[in-house]
Design brief:
The chain is an all-alpha fold. It has one domain. It is built from 5 helices and no strands. The longest helix is centred in the N-terminal third of the chain and has 32 residues.
Amino acid sequence: MSTESSWRLDWILGVATVFSVVGTVVGHRVSLGMEDVSFGLLLILLVLFVAMSWWRMVRAWKDGAARWRVWVSLTGCVALLLAFGMPLVQVLGSITFGMGFGPRWDYKLLMVGFGSGSLVLGVASARGVRFPLIAGGTIIALVGLILPVGV
């Protein structure tokens, strides 16, 4: 994909992210349907940003970007993937250990922490990986803060 089309994709996805975050946060004032559609779009965008960050990190690795930026990008991708996987860890933990057993971690706080870490690492990552890491980290941190009790 050329640099110009990548730039356009980043802007389109950025605008879609802003609209879906705003629709999720204040959508209940307009209609419940708008809030549901916005939250669904937000989750779809999150999956897209996780895949996009890994794809672009591999491309940055092959293109010969600065090694320290590639390693920062890799760390950000891992943080984003861990933040994305926190709800699954909690569900599998409750199924495996049953109710009331297992580690007493605050998975919502871990999700917000890993998402924020991805956001911060995205600032220093390789050029192509910056946008999906920053946008994905922001979305996962916001989703963690929006969810009422826990995942």
